Amino acid sequence: MHTIDAKNRMSLPAGFRQELQRRSDQPAILTNAHECLNLFPYEDWLDFEERIVGIASVDPEAQAFARMVISGATPCPVDKQGRILVPPYLRDHAGLSREVTVAGVGPKIELWDTARFDANLAQTNARYDETARSVAAKLGT
Fold it and tell me: What's the first-to-final CA gap in the chain, in angstroms?
């Protein structure tokens, strides 16, 4: 668990910082997501954004999704103390209080309000069998 200070800065775990810096010389991109924030390595963000925009040209739901995710995106450099700045509009969107959980999820990092993360994880765990079957069907297994 990490904390956001009065200036909206929070420290990223060293492993995540190192991976972001290894993957790109450009600042990571921070954007809104469902109930949390996503932090993408720069090149992964470009790929993600390109795919969304391609779908959005013909799909109204994708247009709405692109509007939410892309319009909220901002460069997020890591400072010399290993901190990132979480703009107030993104902090408000994700409901981030002082305590933040940082979770690596594939190519992105999720920033969650700790209480919200714990509730989401408990809900997912309560529906584990149903969720696992649904994911397995989507994977074709």
Answer: 35
